[in-house]
Task: structure prediction
Amino acid sequence: MERLDKVISGMGKKSRREVKLLVRQGRILVDGVPALSAEMKVDPDTTEILLDGESIGYEKFTYIMLHKPAGVLSAVEDRRQSTVLDLLPQELRRRELSPVGRLDKDTEGLLLLTNDGTLTHQLLRPRSHVDKVYYARVEGELETADCEAFAGGMTLGDGLVCMPAGLEILSPNEALVTLQEGKFHQVKRMLAARGKPVVYLKRLSMGSLRLDESLAPGEYRPLTEGEVNGLRAAVNENISTERQKSSKDFC
Ligand code: URA
Result:
């Protein structure tokens, strides 16, 4: 059970203060009866809540695909710098969304934002083995030995032990990198360790979810039901089969 004002304000269009006023004006019906108080407890999954005769369109969780531009932090708030939440309208910012994993400030591409804590946790835990695919442009020339090093599971000079990862060379200085984990600056650190520093990085996909290329950097859209179901299915499937990749999967 949740407070009525929390449920309605969580939909993003009204603040809690506005809900209080709407209740006083008798404009909110709860199961056909005018709400008596903004603090009354309701079960939003089973209760019909109408505002001026229209359903408030309650959805338990919100899932947003953002094409993260370079120059913003993957954080909920920051006192000095702009964050990915600043790219969303107030209506969405009120929904307590958080980024699922982080991209560096200068990294672009797919960023999922949601208030579904369970799915966030499932996508990020290492044992879910969710593939994250990045497009990387580097200085220097990529070679087969780099693919083999990635596939074998690298241990970096700073002690970072990496799971087997994919490196598909697209051109001498471009590659697709596939990781099943997300340690700090991992793609950059792995490529730097091979003497090929990253000059541009963009995330293309996370599990079955692909960046919608019709979104320009800074644009966003809600996930479709199929996309959300695809992510849920992938997490459960990978867990049940414990699909940790080995070097054979990558080379
Ligand atoms: N690896 C990196 O180095 N940076 C990112 O933003 C994501 C993965």
About this structure: Residues 155 and 161 are 4 Å apart (CA to CA). The pocket of uracil is lined by residues 103-104, 107, 185-188, 201 (CB under 6 Å). Helices lie at 4-10, 16-24, 90-93, 117-124, 144-152, 186-193, 225-241, 247-250. Residues 225-241 form the longest helix (17 residues).
